[in-house]
Amino acid sequence: MSIQELKRCVEVRDGSVSVKDKAAARDMMDSLVYTAVFEADEEKKKGMLILIKEIAKACGAVPASIQGLYEEMGRNYPGFTVPAMNIRGLTYDTMKAVFRKALAMKVGAMIFEIARSEIGYTKQRPLEYATLSLAAAVSEGYEGPVFIQGDHFQLVRKNYLSGPELETNYVKGLIAEAIEAEFYNIDIDSSTLVDLDKPTIKEQQRPNFEKTADLAEHVRCLQPAGVDVSIGGEIGEIGSKNSNPDELKAYLDGFRETFKGAKGLSKLSVQTGTSHGGVVMPDGTLAKVKIDFDTLRVLSDMARREYGLSGCVQHGASTLPDDAFHMFPETGTSEVHLATGFQNIVYDSKHLPPSFREEIYTFIRTEYAKEKKEGQTEEQFLYSTRKKGFGPLKKKWWDLPSGIKGPIMKELEDKFGLLFDQLKVGNTVAIVQRTVKPVVIKKEIDSGLLGQLGLLG
């Protein structure tokens, strides 16, 4: 991508970006994104990412809150479950694969998300992740709202117990960074603070709903004019005991009593028997996951009927067998979070050269040796830790030849198609257009960068 090519299709006047040639902008996205992501100067990188994001918005890919759709779901469940996809590695290519399949199946109801922990080990700050989401949309010719979500913006229990204010302020800072990057969907997870030693369920949930209310008020103070950020809460830490109606009621009633704001939560994450990443056996295979779909049905119905929420959210589901996903819309689940299954397709693909896989594994064995738990087999250790092979070696992944990445992306695209079909989100563009009205929020682009690129008008 040359500066002259950029100048031919993009114009900046009074700080606002306009695109003179959408097709040319689309063709430039791959090189623009690569240049920005691997720019060594952090300020220049930030400026480039914001510029790309503004170009994307001018092309019709607009960051949006899913609040309007979820309010509609709270009134009348439409029979589909929204997939929320955590993309940890080969992020831009994978997002492009998502959009290709979404365009083919007319999918509008889908979310790209990244968790607090993933931001660290994948080395993708919110601005980068949001920019890749929008750039991938433009590259594939997708126009409309793009839902970008902060997943598991979590208070870490041990950190909170040793310094409540410090941990709270860290999460508040992360929320501020995410909203500035145009994440207009935020999942607050203070379920880690539930105190089961208390005598009543409401007292057990109190630290959870009080902290959720505090952080939700923080979100409402930061959201831009015209945007109602979709906020999720959580009652059961994933991997612990299954949630029940009494916990849901105690949490949501407590939140209502505590929260000071016009709009509260749009959804609620619950625990129904899954664990993040699945449970890996000593030989490296995954144990079968058993989800309590009856709990999902009961809690989703209760959340909608009594509290007007979109329903309940299922975490840790991507390693389920393919024939289980149809159960989510059948049980009224409003959203399902999917991550490790995509990572597994990439690492286990026959198209990934064994020598490259071994290079990543050698890095993991060296850098994360201290994380190997007593009694873990080599296969269990690598499976549980290989998610950390994406961030530090990001450029090596991005630089894989198209002859390798292309077939892997085809495998992922097939998986996205299966999930979209099972979750019944095909042909959801119309309901999204009806319920979601994205607001274009103009972000200031560094004038020094614009001068270097010859774009100052």
Task: Compute the average pLDDT.
Answer: 93
Poorly predicted parts: none
The overall strand count is: 11
How many domains, in number, for the residues? Answer: 2
- State the CATH architecture of the largest domain: Alpha-Beta Barrel
User: How would you sum up the major sheet?
Assistant: 8 strands, parallel, barrel
CATH class wording of the largest domain? Alpha Beta
GO biological process, one term: carbohydrate metabolic process
EC number: 4.1.2.13
InterPro entries: Aldolase_TIM, Class_II_FBP_aldolase, FBA_II
GO molecular function: fructose-bisphosphate aldolase activity; zinc ion binding
Quick overview:
This protein is an alpha/beta fold and 457 residues long. Helices cover 51% and strands 12% of the residues.
Q: How are the elements arranged and paired?
A:
Elements: H1 3-9, E1 10-13, E2 16-19, H2 22-37, H3 42-58, E3 61-64, H4 67-75, E4 82-86, H5 91-105, E5 111-115, H6 116-121, H7 126-140, E6 144-154, H8 157-162, H9 164-180, E7 185-189, H10 201-222, E8 230-234, H11 245-258, E9 267-270, H12 293-307, E10 312-314, H13 327-330, E11 335-338, H14 340-348, H15 354-367, H16 378-385, H17 394-398, H18 402-422, H19 429-435, H20 447-452
Parallel strand pairs: 3-6, 4-5, 4-11, 5-6, 6-7, 7-8, 8-9, 9-10, 10-11
Antiparallel strand pairs: 1-2
How would you describe what is shown here?
With 457 residues, this protein is an alpha/beta fold. The protein is built from 20 helices and 11 strands. The protein has helices at residues 3-9, 22-37, 42-58, 67-75, 91-105, 116-121, 126-140, 157-162, 164-180, 201-222, 245-258, 293-307, 327-330, 340-348, 354-367, 378-385, 394-398, 402-422, 429-435, 447-452, and strands at residues 10-13, 16-19, 61-64, 82-86, 111-115, 144-154, 185-189, 230-234, 267-270, 312-314, 335-338. The protein has an 8-stranded parallel β-barrel, surrounded by 5 helices. β9 (267-270), α12 and β10 form a beta-alpha-beta unit. α3 runs parallel beside α7, α5 (91-105) packs across α7 and α10 (201-222) packs across α11 (245-258).
